[in-house]
Amino acid sequence: MTKQTEGIIIGLIAGFYDVQTKDQVVRTRARGLFRKTKMKPVVGDRVKIQIDEQGTSYLVEVLPRTNLIGRPALANVDHVLLVMSAVEPDFSLQLLDRYLTFFSWQKVAVSIYLSKSDLIDANRFNEISKSLAYYVKIGYPVYYKWEDLAAKLPLAITSAQIWTLAGQSGAGKSTLINHLKKDLKQKTGAISTSLNRGKHTTRTVQLFKLGEGFLADTPGFSALDFTPIKINELCNYFVEFKKASAKCKFRGCQHLKEPKCEVKKLVEEKQFLQSRYDDYLLMRSEIENGRIPEYLK
């Protein structure tokens, strides 16, 4: 007698899918029907698996996704922990705005973690934290110490949510995930040993249980392509612009040369960061030209 159960793909290794069900991790293969439909299951997918009388398991259905982002791909992301480096590479508001806009477009919530803050002097730290205070004001939580994250993340990740790290190469994602995984060692060690998993590489994605949900150990999302975004919708992905646009004179205001634009007014009054508005204009140009600017490649 066969039985079916649901779970989440937490890892992929050598053609096998590791699926976390309610009470165990099941290693399974995908049915051939996925090749016919060109539907490739990925980590984060919520799936149905079938287990036959001999105990052999097959992945038989991928349930509808809320999103699919990244290379390698990760499905059903609820929240991104964006790692921004204070130095090496230097902190960049422009890069921060690109990430926030991209994930806003993907309808994924973001928290910000400033790494390597211990490598800069007090003046530079105050300068960066002053800038980040603006992002807190518009709704983005900001963390400065990995110890704070280790304490707060298990409480923040709820009801099978999937969180993942993102950030440029060298920002400290690997260091952060290694800190967090040390705290998870007792919870994940038994599963890892029983499944004989190899060492993690930056070419794979793996989910680790954290709180009531999962944290993705992933290479992150380094390439951000804005060209698929409709240019007249870009302003909606700047959260404070979207809120303020309700007071613009014209519906669908693009905050360019339109009269009585609330967004431009608030920029002029320094209630909105000038750098945010400038980055908005740069992204519009990128979409219009249909390619990523050379200096960002």
In CATH, what is the class of the largest domain?
A: Alpha Beta
The percent range for strand residues is 15-25%
User: Kindly, what is the distance between the CA atoms of the first and last residues, rounded to a whole number of angstroms?
Assistant: 55 Å
What would you give as the CATH superfamily of the largest domain? P-loop containing nucleotide triphosphate hydrolases
How is the main sheet built? Answer: 6 strands, mixed
Query: Which spans have pLDDT < 50 for at least 5 consecutive residues?
Result: 185-202
Specify the number of helices. 8
> What is the 3D form?
globular
Helix content: 25-40%
Tally of distinct domains: 3
Architecture (CATH level 2) name of the largest domain: 3-Layer(aba) Sandwich
Give the total of beta strands. Answer: 13
The radius of gyration over CA amounts to 21 Å
Structural class: alpha/beta
CATH fold-level assignment of the largest domain = Rossmann fold
Main β-sheet, spatial strand arrangement: 10-9-8-11-13-12
Overall pLDDT level: 87
What series of H and E elements makes up the topology?
EEEHEEEEEHEHEHEHEEHHH
Pfam family, one: RsgA_N
Domain CP-type G: 66-224
Main location: cytoplasm
Keywords: Cytoplasm, GTP-binding, Hydrolase, Metal-binding, Nucleotide-binding, Ribosome biogenesis, RNA-binding, rRNA-binding, Zinc
What would your notes on this structure say?
It is a single chain. With about 300 residues, this protein is α/β, with parallel strands linked by helices. It has helices at about 35, 95-105, 120-135, 145-155, 175-195, 240-245, 260-270, 275-290; strands spanning about 5-15, 15-20, 25-30, 45-50, 55-60, 70, 75, 80-85, 110-115, 140-145, 160-165, 205-210, 215. Helix 2 packs across helix 8. The chain is globular, with a radius of gyration of 21 Å. Residues about 185-200 have low confidence and may be disordered.
